[in-house]
Amino acid sequence: MIAVNSLVLSQAGIVETMVDPVGGIIDKKDGMMTGLLMDQAQNLVFDIMPTASEAYLRLALQTAIEDCWSKGLVGGHTEDMSYYGGFTKTYGAFQKVIEDEQKHFRAHLLVHHEVIEDWAAIHTIFKGGSEWLEWGAMKIFADGALGGRTALLSHLYEDDPTTSGIPIHSKESLFTLVKKARSLNLPVAVHTIGDLAFEWVLDAVKAYPTTSDKRDRFIHGQILRKELIDGFKGVSAIIDIQPTFVLSDFPWVIDRIGENRMNYNYAWKTLLEEGIHCAGGSDAPIETVAPLVGIEAAVSRSVMVEGNPVVFGEEEKLSVFEAISLFTKGSAYAIHHEHDRGMLKEGYVADFTILKDDPFKVNETSISTIPVEMTVVGGRLVYKAER
Predict the structure, then answer these.
(1) Which tens digits make up the pLDDT trace of 205-219?
(2) 112-149: b or e for each residue (b if 16 or more CB lie within 10 Å)?
(3) 3-class SS at 341?
(4) Which pLDDT score, from 0 to 100, does residue 333 have?
(5) For residue range 329-377, what is the model confidence (pLDDT) as tens digits?
(6) Helix, strand, coil percent content, the chain, rounded in steps of 5
(7) What pLDDT shows up at residue 23?
(8) pLDDT at residue 166 above 90?
(9) Which phi-psi region, left, alpha or beta, contains residue 37 (left: φ > 0; alpha: ψ -120 to 50)?
């Protein structure tokens, strides 16, 4: 969601009598707009917002990559191509900074469905591109988020029984988008927070399965049911999880979903034990991009509540090995690079991070504070801590 003032509402032509757009909410209280625009309602103001200049995009990308290096990241999976002035302008910034200026960072680029025709026009393919810029799956948003109660649930929200969330697309439209991706020989990467959104996407990828050499991605997948986990095992796909959500969502998410429905939510240990492949992500810039924070969250599941540490879902805590694997082997597997990335092994790319302390030996609630000493990408030292 975004918050705007009355001037923006006026310039965008948004009035109290306007009907909510499909997949979005114009928030109101006592009939008056609050200035909050949720999910697809944000598009109502995007056209009047000034676009970023090419110089700004390059500076922002340079700064972001340097920040990622300092946190130990050698690459990332990102979905930026439909923002910041459009596909061509944004992709051009990536090419300029990462390739021409040699700020080497392995960027796996998901392609939002709204710019998929722009992508197709440059005659590229899945995993095409270059050593540093590689094309990934077609990105789709199936629902919203828990914070604004727009994540699509199979039941009413416990703390607001007037809603069960909103679908960004109808189920029929989701099927059409997945079919579109298949026509371009692409897997899909779909934002699915609520269990009903997950169910719809699961039905869609079963109706239009990907080829045996590709895997779909269910991004987030934090609100689940046992039957969805069982049904997922038959598809060529992974679940892209964000352990830092434990830190930001608990304890309020229990009241939002209902304590009696929490058995298979944020259930990462269960997913791994069921043999489901998972990748570790950050959901930056919504959450911190630092992988050590995510690793600690997966291991400790400890949240400060009124000044005291509280563990939520202790039975779902991961071992340090499992948590690190999410952000190394898991992330490589998610983008079909399990044979050349994600491990320190002969024949694999020389991407690695050197930490000051051993995460297997420190206290589980101290993992996030381990200093990054060096980051190496493609055998080249790109970051060294100043001591």
Answers:
(1) 999 999 989 999 999
(2) bbebbebbeeeeeebeebeebbbbbbbbbbbbbbbbbb
(3) coil
(4) 98
(5) 999 999 999 999 999 999 999 999 999 999 999 999 999 999 999 999 9
(6) 35, 20, 45
(7) 87
(8) yes
(9) beta
pLDDT at 46: 87
Task: Take residue 217 and report the two structure tokens written for it.
Answer: 């991605």
φ/ψ of 293, rounded to 5, equals -65, -45
The helix/strand count (H/E) of the chain reads as: 14, 15
**Tokens, residue 211:** 């080829």
Sign of CA dihedral 239, 244, 246, 251: negative
pLDDT in tens, 273-305: 999 999 999 999 999 999 999 999 999 999 999
**Angle made by CA atoms 125, 129, 131, in degrees to the nearest 5:** 140
Query: How many other CB atoms are found less than 10 A from the CB of residue 19?
Result: 6
Whole-angstrom Cα distance, residue 377 to residue 349?
8
pTM over 0.90: yes
From residue 113, alpha-carbon distances to 119, 167, 214, 217 in Å are 9, 16, 18, 14
Helix (H, G, I), strand (E, B) or coil at 106: strand
CB 136 within 8 A of CB 110: yes
- For residue 125, give Cα distances in angstroms to 122, 134, 187, 255, 386: 9, 9, 11, 44, 41
* Other C-beta atoms lying within 10 Å of the C-beta of residue 277: 17
